[in-house]
Amino acid sequence: MTARIARITAFEALDSRGRPTVAARLELTDGTAATAHAPSGASAGSHEAKELRDGGTRRGGLGVLNAVDNVASRIAPALQGMVFDDPSTVDDALAELDGTDDFSNLGANATLAVSLATTLAVAASERTSVARWLQPEGDLLLPMPMVNIVSGGAHAGRSIDIQDVLVVPHGAKSFAEAIEWCADVRDAASAMAVDSGVPGASLVADEGGIGIPFASNADALRFVVEAIERSGHQPGEEVSLAIDVAATQFFADGHYRLDSENRALSASELIDELARWIDDYPVISIEDALAEDEWRDWVTATRLLGSRIQLIGDDHFVTNGDRLARGVAEGSANSILVKVNQNGLVSRSRAVLDTARASGYSTVVSARSGETEQSWLADFAVGWRAGQIKVGSTHRSERGAKWNRLLELEATESTVFASTQQQHGLPVGSLAAAPAPTR
Ligand code: PGA
Ligand code: ZN
Hints:
Elements: E1 3-14, E2 20-28, E3 33-37, H1 65-79, E4 83-84, H2 87-98, H3 108-125, H4 130-134, E5 140-142, E6 144-151, E7 164-168, H5 175-195, H6 217-230, E8 240-244, E9 251-252, E10 255-258, E11 263-265, H7 267-280, E12 283-287, H8 295-305, E13 310-313, H9 321-330, E14 335-338, H10 340-343, H11 346-358, E15 362-366, H12 376-383, E16 387-392, H13 397-412, E17 415-417, H14 421-424
Helix pairs in contact: 1-2, 1-3, 2-3, 5-6, 7-8, 12-13
Bound molecules: 2-phosphoglycolic acid and zinc ion.
């Protein structure tokens, strides 16, 4: 099909934190249309593509009317009438129009909303889903979910220093079973928190996890292991732990400040601490173990821990091809988090994911802490055969929308669930004894 862009409009929408975000609607000449909302992070890496916020006093400075205006007055006139076979042609035009590496001219929230809407509109025009448009033939690979149970850091008033304690239901045989087990653990965790005297009303953080204080970060790990047990599942056998340290958030003056424990650690002390957590708890994945730019310490951590667990670069790589290339060359991390708004374009995010996979890194497609009710992320994770997906908890509908879309694909399409190490890339299962991913 050769599509032609008929009209692009934009407006300011609300995200899951009630903050403004860019919505772009793209209409094709055949009458199909799609609207996409840009997600937004709270613990964003400093090297991400730049979202444009208005500043000033309106909406606490977080308004996006300038980005919306950029879609209307600069992007729409440049793309209107454009003929294209592939959305990457539109992405290339957006990159050229912006002219910067980080989209600081038009705003990455403006370019991403248009980029997303293009893919959604093209799939709709071909009367197929985004997942099937990306992979027209064969079984679709449903990703292993990574589900938030306890939230800390910037998503929960810094009740603990680490940002997420998550569960990975790697013993499940289907996506439906996987998400059911995670919901069981989340329910057990809620009940445990209420039993310990925490008011029920305070149990839903930005990503739907429980955001309550613990005496130490390790206590939060212990709490989630107990929740797994209470839910009737086997820690380490069926369900294991993943951690997003989000270490950049508490790194200052060369030290990692664990305020909840009143301690400040050097990089090597933090790596030792993480190694102890891996010894003591069934931890199989750690994200942003170190601050975003501490390349040498990242390489050390990868050498020491990379054969035992998945080490994910989120703020470290920011879905950026150059940063990933450096990581591959130096031996930093063995996995990448892919967030389309860190990059600013859908096609370039996909290229980064493909390069990571070709370099032996596992790939985790991820939502942001600021999301909307849209579910396209699930289709991209499937269509790109990511292997893993991280969306937040089983609470809050902007999270559920993605899980429900994956459940819908499992119910309606020919699918396989990423249940082996080869498919999801985690150091568990049939190939657990094999060496860590090589670079
Ligand atoms: P963010 O957090 O969307 O607030 O950046 C998500 C993450 O760190 O994985
Ligand atoms: Zn992260």
